[in-house]
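It would be a great kindness if you could assist me with a short task in structural biology. The matter concerns a single protein, recorded as an amino acid sequence and a row of backbone structure tokens. Kindly check, if you would, that the fold set down in the tokens agrees with what the sequence suggests. Thank you for your consideration; the sequence and its tokens are set out here:
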Amino acid sequence: MRLLAALFLFAFPGLAADLSGKWDVTASPAGKAPMNLDAVLKQVGTDLSGTVNSMIGSGPVKNAVLRSPDLTFQFMLGKYLFDVKAVAGGDEIKGTFTGPRNMQGTFLARRAMMAAAAAAAKSTGPAEGVEVGKLGEAEYRIDIPKNYNGSLVVYCHGYSATPDKFDKSKEPAGLMKELLALGYAVAQSGYSAGGWAVKEGMEDTEALRKFFISKYGKPKRTFVTGHSMGGTITLALAETQPEAYDAALQMCGPIGPTQTMFQKRLFDTLVVYDYYFPDIIGTPVAIAEDLSLEQEFLERIEKEAMNFPNHLAAFQKWSGLQSETEVARVVAFYALIQKELMTRAGGNAFDNRNTLYQGSPDDGLLNRGVKRYTADPKAVEYLRKYYTPKADLKMPVLSLHTVYDPLVPAWQANAYGDMLQLNGGDAYYVQRFVSRSGHCKFTPTETIHAFQDLVTWKEQGKRPEAGEQK
């Protein structure tokens, strides 16, 4: 991967400013540590040439096209060709690159005189403020408080139909406000994709953490936290990047064995719903095209359920859902996730041929009547990778859940603890509950107290007690 450092030769876009001179570059290949190199550029009118110097050699800038503020060019290192796209602003250039073997990443270049100033800023710590920008296709926001304590909290957001955007003028609220008040810097990625973007969330959040280090220096401590799908991403990062984070606060995310959690809750709910209310959402492996979370569609599902009160009562008894409104919302959301997973994974990841359904008024009728499906191996593999917990922790993880969560039942968080015990111990895992109904229904006070307990665990070795979170 050292070769991709070469691509960082990124010449500054912009006819408005002369790009001639020396540039100090930080290249960040996806999934790898940032790399430092430099480029010496010469601009004459719209012609740009130069040389990029890396730890493995040097190579020329080729085929540069300047259209202020955009710049594209190629760089050859040995037999390897790299393509670069960049945007210039002031004395910085930000861009992305692609190379051989699907190599790709982001870069940041500063004029050599600016790099020295940036290094001086690192030595005294970053200045207070808000930074928004874009890394690859993912927008990000970084907040640094006036009383910065030298530590960073990386936040992973939950499910959103589209990638999150950030408004620099919007004041932080809730957990972000509480963390900043305690002196922590907070970094958030909007992810490069919407939907069940666990893959993108893992990659984009890690890229943002590395970007923070490259610009502001390595934090004293780095914590990761998130809600719902962001809880899954939080645990995934804790398990796969143990050298990058000091501790993790996972909140209301599906973290049990993924095949079990999604099969038992999401897929089986759709299967049983389709038995009692056939074709309302299509089928569990062919979701209706008009499915949505819009109020009109939800009201249609709710009305259909109320038209068949006996079926509704039977489904609620089996699922544990508490009202027709909750049934509509949960079923529609699960169907949307299943539809997305089939697109992302290339097929259905669930097999219920051997499933024995229990808990209905007549389990015999239910098991004779439900449709049976086979799983696509490539879809199973995708779900394993994004993300099936390994239950192998190297850092403290505190998990927080409500006692009744219609979307992500608390039993699946308990299941993760069971996995840890089967793997040889749960010394790094504590499960806590909040006595409340609803998905992720925690107050800022409850959340910040959980976070403070996590910090104490990491810094003082005082393991929090399991039980109710106050």
